[in-house]
């Protein structure tokens, strides 16, 4: 297949524009994070931004959550499909959090705006960020919701600002969330990011003109597509399959949720088909189809073009098949609060399926889930209510030539950071007694899987705790002779008479002095265990990655 740019520019100018667009997105992201009111944004970075062209194709997207890869444009496209191209007006800002359009849970709010120059639309700026509470039946989000209406305030695409003036939607948000001060503060941080994107885009238009920008865009897209197609051509044609299961949907605890992936490679194209996955569930593990496509794109990109930034030329060799009414293509009123668990599994399944064809590129499975803990209640130190949510780190899978990394965020969350202990203990009424690498949790192999972590909370005031831990039934698997990793464990009040072990909990009451101990799984091993050198095993023992007993049992040390 021959791909031709509309107009040829000198390569220096093309690279300057390419990097200027990426830098513009980075400036937007920095503006959002530095202006945000919530720790999950200014410490954790649970957000993403992008600049889009007039056809809603990505020009530049910041580092952030890979789970939103090529996903922001679905929101601006939805507006155009509903109201027509003429709906865009200068000074307007739109907002959307509908799970079936954006694909995620209601807490992930997308705010976006057209960019005008000399009276014409020249592109779009878009942001997405996690808002800590959307008025769900439980503070911050429910682990046992059975429909979308229990999960909070849901907005289709509506104007947040019209002709530069805030609309009544702002008041609706303020009166439907439990923490309006920080929520509206985060909203304004997102709007500030849009303004930064608008400024940077107009600077580029002023410097180069739209004709030159469009020509550079077409060349950037052409190069990206060409690189990806060349990689796909080198994959042997065929059908590749893999499957795994989630533990449950949080409601029917004894019923696993199967996720099935079929990949068909033909020439310079590849098709990802997940139509064989489970129907949408009663519990909140569903997602809209847009988010399933994003996860498939992450799996594709990890193998095909991991070193390049995404843009409108990315993913052109890829087609996806998602079944409406499935757990990956949910329709109303399916709950979607913890939509990401099967997406992390799906990304790992891409590597598993393609392992026979791309052994030098694939990695063994990671711990695979965000491993969420939430806490909410009244903080007597400050006389105010609080809510917090944190993803817990785990181990990544090994790959050919390299051990897996320990204490990493899961694959769907990318540059999301765990929250600093100092900040947590200052803002919230609990103490972190332990934060350490969990020895022996990574899978053995010629290259060892990374280890998960142990994180222990001691509560200093009565509150409620939520848990969403996954992948105990499908822990991180090994490849090419590597062994599986340990799965997660959560214990309330370990060693006491009221000890309880559970992986999921909704608004579980805890008292001052209670403890919850989180132990996250590791990544799978890679390659024949017998091929790991004695020196490497000794190094692992000395540095606390494994114990000597573990080495004797699994490596014959």
UniProtKB/TrEMBL annotation:
<protein>
    <submittedName>
        <fullName>Hydantoinase B/oxoprolinase family protein</fullName>
    </submittedName>
</protein>
<dbReference type="InterPro" id="IPR003692">
    <property type="entry name" value="Hydantoinase_B"/>
</dbReference>
<feature type="domain" description="Hydantoinase B/oxoprolinase">
    <location>
        <begin position="10"/>
        <end position="528"/>
    </location>
</feature>
<dbReference type="Pfam" id="PF02538">
    <property type="entry name" value="Hydantoinase_B"/>
</dbReference>
<dbReference type="InterPro" id="IPR045079">
    <property type="entry name" value="Oxoprolinase-like"/>
</dbReference>
């Amino acid at each position: 297949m021959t791909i031709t740019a509309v107009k040829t520019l000198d390569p220096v100018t093309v690279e300057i524009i390419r990097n200027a667009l990426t830098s513009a997105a980075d400036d937007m992201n920095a503006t959002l994070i530095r202006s945000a009111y919530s720790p999950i944004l200014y410490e954790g970075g649970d957000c993403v931004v992008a600049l889009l062209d007039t056809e809603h194709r990505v020009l530049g997207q910041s580092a952030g959550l890979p789970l939103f890869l090529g996903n922001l444009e679905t929101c601006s496209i939805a507006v155009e499909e509903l109201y027509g191209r003429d709906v865009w007006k200068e000074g307007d800002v739109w907002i959307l959090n509908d799970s079936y359009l954006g694909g995620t849970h209601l807490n992930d709010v997308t705010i976006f705006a057209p960019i005008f120059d000399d009276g014409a639309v020249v592109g779009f700026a878009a942001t997405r960020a996690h808002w800590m509470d959307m008025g769900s039946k439980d503070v911050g989000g429910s682990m046992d919701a059975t429909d979308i209406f229990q999960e909070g305030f849901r907005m289709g695409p509506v104007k947040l600002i019209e002709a530069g003036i805030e609309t009544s939607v702002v008041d609706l948000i303020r009166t439907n969330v439990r923490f309006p001060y920080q929520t509206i503060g985060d909203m304004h941080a997102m709007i500030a990011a849009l303004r930064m994107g608008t400024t940077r885009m107009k600077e580029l238009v002023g410097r180069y003109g739209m004709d030159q920008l469009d020509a550079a865009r077409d060349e950037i897209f052409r190069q990206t597509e060409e690189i990806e197609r060349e990689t796909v051509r080198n994959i042997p044609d065929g059908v590749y399959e893999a499957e795994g299961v989630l533990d449950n949907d949080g409601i029917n605890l004894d019923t696993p949720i199967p996720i099935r992936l079929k990949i068909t490679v033909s020439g310079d194209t590849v098709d990802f088909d997940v139509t064989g996955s489970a129907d949408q569930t009663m519990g909140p593990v569903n997602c809209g189809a847009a988010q399933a496509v994003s996860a498939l794109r992450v799996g594709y990109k990890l193998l095909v073009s991991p070193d390049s930034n995404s843009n409108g030329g990315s993913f052109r060799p890829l087609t996806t098949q998602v079944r409406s009414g499935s757990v990956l293509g949910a329709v109303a009123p399916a709950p979607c609060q913890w939509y990401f668990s099967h997406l992390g599994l799906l990304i790992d399944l891409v590597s598993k399926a393609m392992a026979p064809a791309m052994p030098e590129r694939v990695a063994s499975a990671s711990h695979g889930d965000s491993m969420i803990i939430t806490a909410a209640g009244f903080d007597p130190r400050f006389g105010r209510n609080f809510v917090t949510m944190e993803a817990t780190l785990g181990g990544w899978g090994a790959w050919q030539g390299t051990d897996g990394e320990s204490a990493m965020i899961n694959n769907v969350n990318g540059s999301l950071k765990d929250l600093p202990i100092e900040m947590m203990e200052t803002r919230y009424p609990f103490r972190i007694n332990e934060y350490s690498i969990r020895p022996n949790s990574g899978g053995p192999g010629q290259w060892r899987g990374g280890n998960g972590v142990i994180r222990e909370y001691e509560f200093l005031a009565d509150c409620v705790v939520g848990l969403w831990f996954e992948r105990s039934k499908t822990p991180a698997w090994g490849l090419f002779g590597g062994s599986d990793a340990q799965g997660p464990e959560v214990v309330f009040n370990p060693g006491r008479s009221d000890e309880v072990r559970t992986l999921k909990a909704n608004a579980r009451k805890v008292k001052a002095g209670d403890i919850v101990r989180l132990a996250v799984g590791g990544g799978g091993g890679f390659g024949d265990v017998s091929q790991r050198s004695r020196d490497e095993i000794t190094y692992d023992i000395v540095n606390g990655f494994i114990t000597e007993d573990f080495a004797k049992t699994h490596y014959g040390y």
